[in-house]
Amino acid sequence: MRIWVPLGTVAACLAAVVATAAPATASDGLRAGAASADITPPIGTPMFAYTARSAVAGGHVDRPMQIVADPDQHLYAKSFVPSRGIHTRLRSRAIVLERAGLKYAMVQTDLGGIPYAVTNEVAKRVASAGIAEQRLLISATHTHSATGPIWPADNGGYAALGGDMFDPRIFELTVQGIAESILKANGDLRSAKLGVGTVQVRDASRNRAFEPFKRNKDIPKDEAGARGVSIDPDLSVVRVDDAKDRPIAVWSNFAIHATSFGDGNLLFSGDNPGYTEEIVERELAKRADGREVVNVWTNASEGDISPNGGPDSLGGEPAQHVTSSFGSAHMAGRRVADGVLGAWRAAGAEMSSTPPLGARTTYLNFDGTAADGEPVGPHQVLGAGIVSEGMCAPFDNAAGPGQGKKFPGVGGVGLVPNIHPVSMWNVGGLGIAAFGSEITKQMGERIRRGLEKQAGSAFDRVALAGLSNSYFSYTATPEEYDACHYEGSFTLFGRRQGARLLDVAKQVNGALLSGGEAPAGIAPPALGVGTTQDVPPRTTEDAGAVVAQPAQTVKRFGRAQLRFKGGDPGVDAPRGATFVRLQRQDGKAWETVMTDASFRDTAERFGGDEYLETVQFSECDPRGTYRLVVTGRADKGDGVKPYTVTSRAFELEEATIAHTEPVVTDGVARFRATYPSPGPDALMALPRVVRSGVAHVRLANDRGKGRVVKVKPSSDGTFAVPVRPGRTAEVLRVTDACGNASS
User: Fold this and answer.
1) What are the helix and strand counts (H, E) for the chain?
2) Using one digit for the tens of pLDDT, what is the confidence trace for 223-233?
3) How many domains is the chain built from?
4) Sign of the C-alpha dihedral, residues 73, 76, 78, 84?
5) Is residue 28 located within the same domain as residue 78?
6) What does pTM read for this prediction?
């Protein structure tokens, strides 16, 4: 993430290590369950990351008025810009695995990061289900369009400039949702089997810090070779099916920043991982006989890895219309989803009902302990390279022990804690190393190589789950650190921070491999305290009134919009409830075909309690009669009650296809057909080149006589028709597989 934070030191704490029971034996069968829960906070809650959203660093002149006037009367946003609506619901997804009487929870949250206080509080709430904290793996996707004010006092840097001041109401809501997903999964345990698969995805990401990356000693020295290894293409999954081969869930792991949306986005969204989650879950649900299937999406060594959301290329032309950040998020998310589904299929080759399963956790204390023969900083220091990349100190350790050439900035206390959990898991032969950091690609590779060498044949490979169970910013290699750029400047405990992570992970891994116990110790204090108390909502007498209806006719590639009056944001669009439904008429009944959980809609709130609901249509959505139905909550003067808005019906029609004029070369007439542009605000990437259906082409001689032939497009969207000398080719009509046609 990109934020500015004050520098400072945090008092050192005692190191702590917690051991779990030994891994299950081969005679114990596997049981598994999976579920998801909503963790979307009230609209108006500030979002994680981006200093441009901060009053302190972003210069928003309206912040004093927000604090004084607080127009929403809830003061969710104190020093940050309030959020304005929902793109996708933020969710927590959980898989619970049980063998030999021990339960393990693998959890994903649509959050930017996870303070340890959240992990600790969730652990307390699921302990009664037999899930101990040391067998709890909670990972944040790192979306920058998620909940902000969940950082307690020991995370002062992120509370101040990475998500707004701590709000116990939002902390409670977030913890409730995460615990709910775990407990629901635990309540659905059934006989299961598990498999592991890995594929490579090379078109979804790019290295955003290539100059520091080139300094690493263990990469090719030529530019092309360095580019080729600058991303981590490995995508690993843990596939979980029931005894009848129906999918229960998939845990997936890939390195990519969730920053398809910039700081201008004020709609809650899972970003590109949210698109991946929805695509994968929708596809696997087709095989699940109506049961919920969840994709527990986790981030790997994404510290210097950004998303690649550009369109595919077809003969030098873009294959898709990518006209917005939504489209970029969709392209990156779809590419990763293709990888998840590919790895899921590969995992099906070796499914086991008695997989190896075990976990160990320790608490790493940054107390000055050396690594690789050098001290590791006992205090957190943020480098000036975040302001001006390349700004280094004139001599070593000017910022303190172990900080190398880092040029220190301003100071502060409580930037992040000094103590953080480090975990090692074995799930079906996949080793999972979990850290609360954004580790750069090459540092992550060094950690994985070290752990794989230690494990020998015990692991097929090691995956790195970053942003897990706590958060302490970036971890760069020493070479990258010495460049004094962004990622190195945010490596808070010095140039050997990554080596220290590896040393501690090896200790934990050794205990896991031997079936022994890790050294005992003391966990860090957890300072988060939640509350369900809130101020009474404002009276909104107009809630449910329609301001503007959708157009009577909408074409595919277009959008339907409804404006309506809503309730106070403290009670409207509540967590765990569907706010908006898109319905299609089926005879006399109306069938819900989409909700506000989808990436194909947005609900944006404006002044005067007005909402604008927008739904994006694609090239193959069925023609027919549609409507939008809103189910909200408001106090119209007689207490908080539901209200309903039902739009007028509107018709969805086909899109109009365009085509180029045929060009005859070497006796073959070639042309392409294209779909209309969806405009600059499309909520997804949509195809540009027609690659299905048929074209009717008239071939005629110089006397005007001829015949009509049908031709299908090639995989790159080219229609090709043989033409005899002296004949002409005229395109009469192009129709795709979904019924869209040229005029």
Assistant:
1) 13, 41
2) 999 999 999 99
3) 3
4) negative
5) yes
6) 0.94
